[in-house]
Design brief:
By secondary structure, the chain is an alpha+beta fold. The protein has helices at residues 2-55, 179-194, 222-231, 233-237, 239-261, and strands at 56-62, 77-83, 99-100, 115-116, 125-129, 132-133, 143-149, 155-163, 173-177, 199-204. Strands 6-10-7-8 form a four-stranded mixed β-sheet, with helices on one face. Strand 7 and strand 8 form a beta hairpin.
Length: 265
Protein backbone atom coordinates (compact mmCIF):
# COMPACT_ATOMS: atom_id res chain seq x y z
CA UNK A 1 0.00 0.00 0.00
CA UNK A 2 2.80 2.40 0.88
CA UNK A 3 4.56 1.69 -2.44
CA UNK A 4 1.35 2.28 -4.36
CA UNK A 5 0.82 5.59 -2.65
CA UNK A 6 4.36 6.62 -3.30
CA UNK A 7 3.98 5.81 -7.01
CA UNK A 8 0.77 7.84 -7.25
CA UNK A 9 2.50 10.82 -5.62
CA UNK A 10 5.33 10.62 -8.11
CA UNK A 11 2.89 10.56 -11.00
CA UNK A 12 1.03 13.57 -9.65
CA UNK A 13 4.27 15.47 -9.15
CA UNK A 14 5.37 14.49 -12.64
CA UNK A 15 2.09 15.76 -14.16
CA UNK A 16 2.35 19.01 -12.24
CA UNK A 17 5.93 19.50 -13.42
CA UNK A 18 4.87 18.83 -17.03
CA UNK A 19 1.99 21.31 -16.82
CA UNK A 20 4.20 23.99 -15.25
CA UNK A 21 6.85 23.35 -17.90
CA UNK A 22 4.29 23.72 -20.68
CA UNK A 23 2.92 26.93 -19.17
CA UNK A 24 6.40 28.36 -18.79
CA UNK A 25 7.18 27.29 -22.35
CA UNK A 26 4.07 29.01 -23.70
CA UNK A 27 4.77 32.15 -21.71
CA UNK A 28 8.36 32.19 -22.86
CA UNK A 29 7.35 31.53 -26.46
CA UNK A 30 4.67 34.22 -26.36
CA UNK A 31 7.09 36.72 -24.86
CA UNK A 32 9.70 35.89 -27.48
CA UNK A 33 7.21 36.21 -30.36
CA UNK A 34 5.86 39.48 -28.95
CA UNK A 35 9.36 40.87 -28.61
CA UNK A 36 10.26 39.81 -32.17
CA UNK A 37 7.06 41.23 -33.64
CA UNK A 38 7.33 44.41 -31.62
CA UNK A 39 10.90 44.91 -32.74
CA UNK A 40 10.03 44.08 -36.32
CA UNK A 41 6.99 46.34 -36.64
CA UNK A 42 7.93 49.08 -34.21
CA UNK A 43 9.23 51.29 -37.00
CA UNK A 44 6.10 50.66 -39.07
CA UNK A 45 3.82 51.47 -36.12
CA UNK A 46 5.74 54.62 -35.32
CA UNK A 47 5.50 55.72 -38.94
CA UNK A 48 1.75 55.07 -38.97
CA UNK A 49 1.28 56.95 -35.72
CA UNK A 50 3.20 59.92 -37.05
CA UNK A 51 1.15 59.85 -40.26
CA UNK A 52 -2.09 59.80 -38.26
CA UNK A 53 -0.92 62.68 -36.08
CA UNK A 54 0.10 64.65 -39.17
CA UNK A 55 -3.29 63.98 -40.79
CA UNK A 56 -5.23 65.49 -37.89
CA UNK A 57 -6.39 68.95 -38.93
CA UNK A 58 -9.36 71.28 -39.23
CA UNK A 59 -11.17 70.96 -42.56
CA UNK A 60 -14.38 72.25 -44.11
CA UNK A 61 -16.94 69.55 -44.96
CA UNK A 62 -20.21 69.99 -46.81
CA UNK A 63 -23.09 69.42 -44.43
CA UNK A 64 -25.74 69.34 -47.16
CA UNK A 65 -25.82 68.98 -50.95
CA UNK A 66 -24.32 72.07 -52.61
CA UNK A 67 -25.05 73.00 -56.22
CA UNK A 68 -22.50 74.45 -58.64
CA UNK A 69 -22.51 78.24 -58.32
CA UNK A 70 -23.94 78.16 -54.79
CA UNK A 71 -22.21 80.17 -52.10
CA UNK A 72 -20.73 78.30 -49.13
CA UNK A 73 -22.16 79.44 -45.81
CA UNK A 74 -22.55 78.23 -42.23
CA UNK A 75 -25.80 76.58 -43.33
CA UNK A 76 -24.22 74.17 -45.83
CA UNK A 77 -20.62 73.64 -44.61
CA UNK A 78 -19.08 72.64 -41.27
CA UNK A 79 -15.59 73.07 -39.84
CA UNK A 80 -14.43 69.74 -38.37
CA UNK A 81 -11.28 68.35 -36.71
CA UNK A 82 -10.63 65.01 -38.38
CA UNK A 83 -8.12 62.79 -40.16
CA UNK A 84 -7.44 63.95 -43.70
CA UNK A 85 -4.57 62.70 -45.87
CA UNK A 86 -5.04 65.34 -48.57
CA UNK A 87 -2.21 67.81 -49.07
CA UNK A 88 -2.91 70.64 -46.59
CA UNK A 89 -1.69 73.18 -49.17
CA UNK A 90 -4.75 72.37 -51.31
CA UNK A 91 -7.33 72.39 -48.52
CA UNK A 92 -9.61 75.37 -48.05
CA UNK A 93 -8.73 77.36 -44.94
CA UNK A 94 -11.88 79.49 -45.00
CA UNK A 95 -14.81 78.30 -47.13
CA UNK A 96 -17.41 80.86 -46.07
CA UNK A 97 -18.17 83.17 -48.99
CA UNK A 98 -16.53 81.01 -51.66
CA UNK A 99 -18.47 79.59 -54.62
CA UNK A 100 -18.89 75.88 -55.47
CA UNK A 101 -17.36 74.95 -58.86
CA UNK A 102 -19.38 71.72 -59.15
CA UNK A 103 -22.33 69.88 -57.63
CA UNK A 104 -21.16 68.47 -54.27
CA UNK A 105 -22.93 65.87 -52.10
CA UNK A 106 -22.90 66.08 -48.32
CA UNK A 107 -19.70 64.90 -46.59
CA UNK A 108 -17.16 66.20 -49.13
CA UNK A 109 -13.92 67.74 -47.78
CA UNK A 110 -13.44 71.05 -49.55
CA UNK A 111 -10.21 71.69 -51.45
CA UNK A 112 -9.19 74.57 -53.68
CA UNK A 113 -10.22 72.72 -56.87
CA UNK A 114 -13.84 72.63 -55.71
CA UNK A 115 -14.12 76.32 -54.81
CA UNK A 116 -13.54 79.66 -56.45
CA UNK A 117 -13.47 83.24 -55.29
CA UNK A 118 -16.34 85.43 -56.44
CA UNK A 119 -15.16 88.96 -57.02
CA UNK A 120 -17.96 91.37 -57.77
CA UNK A 121 -17.18 94.41 -59.84
CA UNK A 122 -18.08 97.79 -58.41
CA UNK A 123 -20.97 98.29 -60.84
CA UNK A 124 -22.34 94.75 -60.54
CA UNK A 125 -25.93 94.50 -59.36
CA UNK A 126 -28.61 91.82 -59.17
CA UNK A 127 -31.11 92.40 -61.98
CA UNK A 128 -34.54 90.80 -62.40
CA UNK A 129 -36.10 90.05 -65.81
CA UNK A 130 -39.49 88.85 -66.99
CA UNK A 131 -38.89 89.34 -70.72
CA UNK A 132 -36.60 86.32 -71.17
CA UNK A 133 -38.10 83.11 -72.58
CA UNK A 134 -37.45 79.44 -71.74
CA UNK A 135 -36.48 80.19 -68.13
CA UNK A 136 -38.52 77.19 -66.98
CA UNK A 137 -36.15 74.87 -68.86
CA UNK A 138 -33.23 75.74 -66.59
CA UNK A 139 -32.45 75.30 -62.90
CA UNK A 140 -31.16 77.70 -60.32
CA UNK A 141 -27.35 78.26 -60.58
CA UNK A 142 -27.15 77.00 -64.19
CA UNK A 143 -24.61 78.76 -66.43
CA UNK A 144 -26.35 80.34 -69.41
CA UNK A 145 -26.05 82.82 -72.26
CA UNK A 146 -28.79 85.36 -72.97
CA UNK A 147 -29.38 85.55 -76.73
CA UNK A 148 -31.67 87.54 -79.02
CA UNK A 149 -33.33 86.12 -82.13
CA UNK A 150 -34.91 88.45 -84.70
CA UNK A 151 -37.77 87.64 -87.04
CA UNK A 152 -35.44 87.63 -90.05
CA UNK A 153 -33.40 84.78 -88.51
CA UNK A 154 -30.44 86.81 -87.21
CA UNK A 155 -29.28 85.62 -83.82
CA UNK A 156 -26.78 87.21 -81.41
CA UNK A 157 -25.38 86.60 -77.93
CA UNK A 158 -26.22 89.58 -75.69
CA UNK A 159 -24.48 88.54 -72.45
CA UNK A 160 -22.41 85.38 -72.00
CA UNK A 161 -21.76 82.79 -69.30
CA UNK A 162 -23.83 84.15 -66.45
CA UNK A 163 -25.11 82.30 -63.37
CA UNK A 164 -28.89 82.07 -63.47
CA UNK A 165 -30.78 82.66 -60.24
CA UNK A 166 -34.43 81.70 -60.05
CA UNK A 167 -37.04 80.28 -57.73
CA UNK A 168 -38.62 76.94 -58.60
CA UNK A 169 -41.80 77.36 -60.59
CA UNK A 170 -41.23 81.03 -61.40
CA UNK A 171 -40.57 82.47 -64.86
CA UNK A 172 -38.60 85.37 -63.39
CA UNK A 173 -34.81 85.15 -63.73
CA UNK A 174 -32.07 87.09 -61.94
CA UNK A 175 -28.47 87.81 -62.91
CA UNK A 176 -25.57 89.74 -61.41
CA UNK A 177 -24.73 92.23 -64.17
CA UNK A 178 -22.21 95.01 -64.60
CA UNK A 179 -23.29 98.43 -65.82
CA UNK A 180 -22.23 97.56 -69.38
CA UNK A 181 -24.16 94.28 -69.32
CA UNK A 182 -27.22 96.08 -67.97
CA UNK A 183 -27.10 98.50 -70.90
CA UNK A 184 -26.75 95.67 -73.43
CA UNK A 185 -29.69 93.69 -72.12
CA UNK A 186 -31.75 96.89 -71.79
CA UNK A 187 -31.20 97.51 -75.50
CA UNK A 188 -32.10 93.91 -76.28
CA UNK A 189 -35.37 94.26 -74.31
CA UNK A 190 -36.07 97.43 -76.29
CA UNK A 191 -35.54 95.50 -79.54
CA UNK A 192 -38.10 92.86 -78.51
CA UNK A 193 -40.67 95.64 -78.03
CA UNK A 194 -39.90 97.53 -81.23
CA UNK A 195 -39.28 94.67 -83.68
CA UNK A 196 -42.09 92.18 -83.88
CA UNK A 197 -40.92 88.57 -83.60
CA UNK A 198 -37.71 89.42 -81.73
CA UNK A 199 -37.19 87.15 -78.71
CA UNK A 200 -34.81 87.05 -75.77
CA UNK A 201 -34.06 83.52 -74.61
CA UNK A 202 -31.56 81.40 -72.67
CA UNK A 203 -29.13 78.74 -73.84
CA UNK A 204 -27.14 76.56 -71.43
CA UNK A 205 -23.64 75.08 -71.29
CA UNK A 206 -22.97 71.33 -71.22
CA UNK A 207 -19.93 71.80 -68.93
CA UNK A 208 -19.35 75.45 -68.09
CA UNK A 209 -15.93 74.85 -66.46
CA UNK A 210 -14.56 73.32 -69.67
CA UNK A 211 -16.26 75.51 -72.26
CA UNK A 212 -15.11 78.96 -73.31
CA UNK A 213 -17.27 82.05 -73.03
CA UNK A 214 -19.43 82.87 -76.03
CA UNK A 215 -18.34 86.07 -77.77
CA UNK A 216 -21.09 88.69 -77.67
CA UNK A 217 -21.74 89.97 -81.21
CA UNK A 218 -24.85 91.93 -80.31
CA UNK A 219 -24.84 95.59 -81.39
CA UNK A 220 -27.16 97.68 -79.19
CA UNK A 221 -29.19 100.72 -80.18
CA UNK A 222 -27.46 104.02 -81.00
CA UNK A 223 -28.61 105.50 -77.69
CA UNK A 224 -26.99 102.68 -75.73
CA UNK A 225 -23.87 102.83 -77.91
CA UNK A 226 -23.54 106.47 -76.95
CA UNK A 227 -23.74 105.58 -73.26
CA UNK A 228 -21.17 102.83 -73.70
CA UNK A 229 -18.87 105.16 -75.58
CA UNK A 230 -18.84 107.53 -72.63
CA UNK A 231 -17.97 104.69 -70.24
CA UNK A 232 -15.64 102.42 -72.16
CA UNK A 233 -12.52 103.18 -74.21
CA UNK A 234 -13.16 100.17 -76.45
CA UNK A 235 -16.53 101.55 -77.56
CA UNK A 236 -14.99 104.99 -78.17
CA UNK A 237 -12.54 103.42 -80.60
CA UNK A 238 -15.15 101.48 -82.55
CA UNK A 239 -18.18 103.73 -82.05
CA UNK A 240 -18.51 104.73 -85.73
CA UNK A 241 -18.25 101.11 -86.93
CA UNK A 242 -20.79 99.93 -84.34
CA UNK A 243 -23.20 102.65 -85.42
CA UNK A 244 -22.87 101.50 -89.03
CA UNK A 245 -23.52 97.88 -87.99
CA UNK A 246 -26.55 98.92 -85.95
CA UNK A 247 -27.99 100.99 -88.81
CA UNK A 248 -27.46 98.08 -91.20
CA UNK A 249 -29.25 95.72 -88.78
CA UNK A 250 -32.21 98.08 -88.45
CA UNK A 251 -32.42 98.43 -92.23
CA UNK A 252 -32.50 94.64 -92.64
CA UNK A 253 -35.21 94.33 -90.00
CA UNK A 254 -37.30 97.07 -91.63
CA UNK A 255 -36.85 95.42 -95.03
CA UNK A 256 -37.99 92.08 -93.61
CA UNK A 257 -41.04 93.78 -92.06
CA UNK A 258 -41.88 95.47 -95.37
CA UNK A 259 -41.54 92.21 -97.28
CA UNK A 260 -43.74 90.46 -94.72
CA UNK A 261 -46.37 93.17 -95.11
CA UNK A 262 -46.29 92.73 -98.91
CA UNK A 263 -46.55 88.97 -98.61
CA UNK A 264 -43.04 88.36 -99.93
CA UNK A 265 -41.69 86.97 -96.61
Amino acid sequence: MWRLRKSVKKRIVFCIVCVVAQVLGLVLCGTTVKHVLSKKYKAVLEEKNKAMEAAERFVYVTGTEVKAGECFSEQNVERKYMLCEQNPDFLVTDAIGLIACADLPAGVILNTALCCQQNFEETERECVFREIAYVENFSDADTVDVRIRYANGENYCVIAKKKLKKNEGEEICRFHLTEEEQLLISSACYDTEIYEGATLYLVGYREARLQEDTVSRYVPSIQVLTQLRDRNEIYRERFARCCEQRNALEERLLLQKEQQRNGVW
